[in-house]
Please model this.
Amino acid sequence: EELGCNVVYMCGETSVKTRLIDQRSKQHVLRVDNDNRSQPLLFEDIPYDLNSGNLDAIFISDYDKGYVSYKLVEQLITEFKGPVFVDTKKTDLKRLEGAYVKINELEYSKLISKCSGIIVTKGENGAQYNDVHVPAPTVEVSDVCGAGDTFLSALAWRYIRSKDIIDAMEFAVKASSITVQHLGNYAPDLGELK
Model:
């Protein structure tokens, strides 16, 4: 919304995140997740006409707690005529071929298969897509909370406009570098990104 988008979303009960912040340094020390397994969302239960012309992209944030199945993502990739962006903890990414899949380095090390659209975020070292590395600016990091969500949102927003994944990655890295300079979840707006 900070980027001027209209967002429609569906959410499953996945986890409650509790972040412990050091009082003196204001640094994020630990996150404790209280996970709840969700019933899987079925494709036929999605209450939107995916190809009505009202949706520019689909974003899937998947903590692999049961709400989002491989089958659902495969159906969305097949049925939706626009770009699909996935942030996932799943490891069999060959099944997500046709989507742009954002994962971090730790998640990348656990993969059992890969798709061609993998974007690996590397924190202070930027992001990687195939053989293209996008460096991150050097900034003073206050808190990394929300950096991945910011990256995915900014990536998709810019890609919708430019149709250039490298340009979109550069924009997303810049957005994330702004987010990490703030304590807590922070989403930069367009004014900060110009």
Q: What stands out?
A: The first helix runs from residue 70 to 79. The chain has a mean pLDDT of 86.
